[in-house]
Amino acid sequence: METEEIFRQEEATLLRAHDILQSPESAKGVLLVEYGHLVNAYGDLLAQTRMLTKISDRLQRKVDQTNHELSKTNYRLTRTIDDLMRAKLGRKATTLVFIIAIVLFIISEIIIEPRIDHMLVTAGSLSTYIGYGLKGLIALLIKPFEGFTEKKMIDRARKRAIEKREKGAVAED
Fold first, then answer.
1. 108: Cβ–Cβ under 8 A, 6 or more apart, which residues?
2. Would you kindly state where each structural domain of the chain is located, as residue ranges?
3. For the chain, which terminus, N or C, has the lower number of CB atoms within 10 Å?
4. Phi, psi dihedrals of residue 123, rounded to the nearest 5°
């Protein structure tokens, strides 16, 4: 039964009840019969309302469940995208730090160690230990520098993503 039809029947029942109440020849018997019709119509309306409410409640639960599942899926996708971005930027940071470390080792071998050797000619093997110390220092600084570089790259990528979203939101308005 369509919604419009339900309301038409109820409006007709209400109009009939008003007509009977306003008619001068309303006898007790006619009122009782019409009251019975009104009670029956009201019972039908109540049954239809209950059915519609059950259907509506069931649909609402499905919508709520779907929204919850979408929220969980959205969270997992966001986490996955963040993990992929971190991995990508981590590889870039590692490559950059590795290149910098190679450059520092080359600078150490070509420029710094010969000067140390020249300054410490009389000290003998001390210059070798100083050279090893410089290379060890460079090696020890690689990991913290990589973490710092990766963090900066991630922060910059997030900032760009936020700006991109804001520009997209402004364009939609």
1. 131, 134, 135, 138
2. 3-172
3. C
4. -80, -20
